[in-house]
Amino acid sequence: MKAKYFNKSEEEKLFFSTLKKRVYEQLQGRIISYGDARFWFKGLFWTFVCYLSYIALFSDSISKMSFWLLYVVFQLSGLLIGFSFGHDASHNTAFKNKKANSVLHFLSFLTVGIDPLLWGLRHIRSHHLYANVEGSDVDIDKNPFLRLGPTHTWKPMHKYQVYYAPFVYMFTLLHSVFMSDWVYLFSNEYDWMKRGVPKTELYFRFLLYKMIYFSLVLILPILFSHFDWSFVVLSYFTASAFTSMVFIIMLVGTHFFDGADYPEPEGEFLEHTWAVHQLHTSCDWNADKSWARFLSGGSNCHAAHHLFPNICHTNYSEINSIIEETTKEFKQPYHHKTLFKMMFSHFTHLHKMGNPQN
Known about the structure:
The chain is an all-alpha fold. It has one domain (about 10-355). The chain contains 15 helices and 2 strands. It has helices spanning about 10-25, 35-55, 65-90, 100-110, 115-125, 160-170, 170-185, 190-195, 200-225, 230-250, 275-280, 290-295, 300-305, 315-330, 340-355, and strands at about 285, 335. It is globular, with a radius of gyration of 21 Å. The two termini are about 25 Å apart. InterPro entries: FA_desaturase_dom, Fatty_acid_desaturase. This is Linoleoyl-CoA desaturase. GO terms for molecular function: acyl-CoA 6-desaturase activity. Keywords: Membrane, Oxidoreductase, Transmembrane, Transmembrane helix.
């Protein structure tokens, strides 16, 4: 990863200091740096749904259709545990204690398949610092199928990416499970991401996590459900594809949307301060809707999360209006759309990136 330097604009620094002051005044006297009752209710709700549907898979009386539907619910609610518990735990905003956060982070990703430690390291050390900066934000690294930013090399196939992208997105989680995690762990290219974490801990946690994950999603259902192994494997792959699409719908447009900034540094310097950089590269969706926050674990309030990652996501409902008002006052960008409009904007962006002139 290439480290960059942010602009030191006094005007932009004043904006963020004013915003922080208003946010902390609004939330004064409340539990904001770790999980409150709302946080635990939501996370435990999805945990209950996830493992209740999982237990039901082993009933002798269920049909194939019921098994498949329950498997989809198991996978999907497992993803929502990651949104509700795991994301905050990776930022140490679930518990006061870092070790407790680490344990919750590990447990929250058990049915997702993405190694929680490696994901957390790249999420915090790369994405949260340099969103949408190629070479510094791992999430915008070049891939062989899609051109997601103007700094990516154009290929003739990209003319059609707006049409084939949904099929690529269906493999998002499977790609992470079977390819990305292994590259992040073993490639020397990502040593910067793993710095400070003992290799024995990385390898042990990786191995333990993958063993538990594959036991949960494949081995136990194959051994103890009354269905043929091929049907269980088919259920796994199709449920993963469905869950991947939900994951993509909720997240991909929060950074890859029409109107987002994809900064190209002048040397080692970025155009804006860190805080304003986050606003130029993030998009909220239905940030004023409680159902959206419940499903996404606050990921729909992307500006609030990037600006205040040390505040538990159940407080974002009160932060959003302050961000909107303060950005208007200081003439800074604030991108907010409905979920449908954000996804439409994402495909508009893909269409533009399919043009070699963009």
